[in-house]
Structure formats: C-alpha cells, structure tokens
From TrEMBL:
InterPro entries: NAD(P)-bd_dom_sf, SDR_fam. The lineage of its organism: Bacteria, Pseudomonadati, Pseudomonadota, Betaproteobacteria, Rhodocyclales. Belongs to the short-chain dehydrogenases/reductases (SDR) family. Keywords: NADP, Oxidoreductase. PANTHER family: DEHYDROGENASE_REDUCTASE SDR FAMILY PROTEIN 7-LIKE, RETINOL DEHYDROGENASE-RELATED. GO terms for molecular function: oxidoreductase activity. This is Short-chain dehydrogenase. It holds the Pfam family adh_short.
Length: 186
C-alpha cells in the first residue's frame, strides 16, 4: 500500500477518463497498541498503512486535480490523530501525520478551486473496530458517520468531525494540561 509507483499508476488510471470531481481516500487498520510496542514490524505497518499510504494517495490525486484546476480531495483521518494517547499512539501518530499533511495541502491549494477535506471520525461501528465493539465501546453507526462525511465534502469544509460531537470532545482533550491528561486512562 506504500509503493509510490503503484499509487501513481492507480491515480493516473482513475484520472484517465477525464478530470475527477471527488476522491475519498478511506483505508486503514486499527492495530493493537501492545503489539506495536513489542513488534517493530507491526508498528511500522501501522504507521505506513494509516499515515504514509493515505498521504501518498492524497499527493498522487492532488497532482491530477492541480492539472485539472478543480476537485475535492477528502481523506479519512481520525480523532486519534488529535492527541497521542497510551491506548493507541501508533495509530494516533499515523493519523496525526495525515492531519499535518492535509493541513499543508490545504495551504497549498488555498485560493484555488481545489478543496482538501480532512475527515476525523470517532469510533465507528465497522469491521476495523470489531475488537472495540466486543469490549462494549460505544461506536457511532456507520450511516451517521457517512452522512457527516458526505455533508462535509459537499460543503468543502477543511475539517469534518464525524459525528460532530467529536469536535468538542477533542477540543477538551487537546487542551487538557499534561498533568491532568496523564492521569486519565484513555
């Protein structure tokens, strides 16, 4: 998933029929944090699949949109990228990479007809979060998250929290002082 040549060919093939209006880059893997701590290959894979790969796909499609002079590029990040937490910092760091990368792309395309949308879902009821569901974690219905994504892309919002409640939740988590945050078991 991180082969630059294969990613470039994929974007070129998708663009071959004409300009692209909307691209949604949505792939990832939720690793078990303890595995990433003890298996450096698993850690590398988590960082590549969740961070490097989406950034490379975004860059490949952005070039085609730049050539066409328009388009909307949307990439799934995560609320986990807003602040590193002991429960999932390998995944969170990768999504933090996506966050910063997309911010740079938003700056690159500011004032143009190209929109870059970063989607930050909270925990969502998908196969990727099956382990969380088995632990009783509250998960958002996929239909609710999808509706937020579609609405955010249509509006060309730079950042879409899905569901929207995560904007306020993550604002609080990002702004907690370290001495308070470090006492939390999250």
């Amino acid at each position: 998933m991180c082969d630059p040549d294969a990613i470039g060919r994929t974007a070129a093939h998708a663009s071959a029929g004409g300009s692209i209006d909307v691209v949604l880059i949505a792939h990832g893997d939720l690793p078990v944090q303890a595995e990433c701590e003890t298996d450096l290959r698993r850690c590398r894979d988590a960082l590549e699949v969740n961070g490097v790969s989406p950034a490379l796909f975004a860059e490949a499609f952005a070039q085609h949109m730049a050539n066409a002079g328009h388009g909307t590029l949307a990439v799934i990040g995560s609320v986990a990228g807003d602040r590193g937490r002991k429960s999932n910092y390998a995944y969170g760091a990768a999504k933090g990479l996506v966050n910063r990368y997309l911010q740079g792309m938003q700056h690159r395309f500011a004032g143009t007809a190209i929109k870059v949308v970063l989607v930050k879902p909270g925990p969502t009821d998908t196969p990727m979060t099956a382990q969380l569901k088995g632990q009783g974690a509250p998960l958002a219905p996929v239909e609710q998250v999808a509706a937020c994504i579609v609405e955010g892309i249509a509006a060309g919002r730079p950042v879409v929290y899905a569901p929207a409640k995560w904007r306020a939740i993550m604002w609080v988590i990002r702004h907690l002082p370290g001495f308070v945050f470090n006492r939390l078991n999250i």
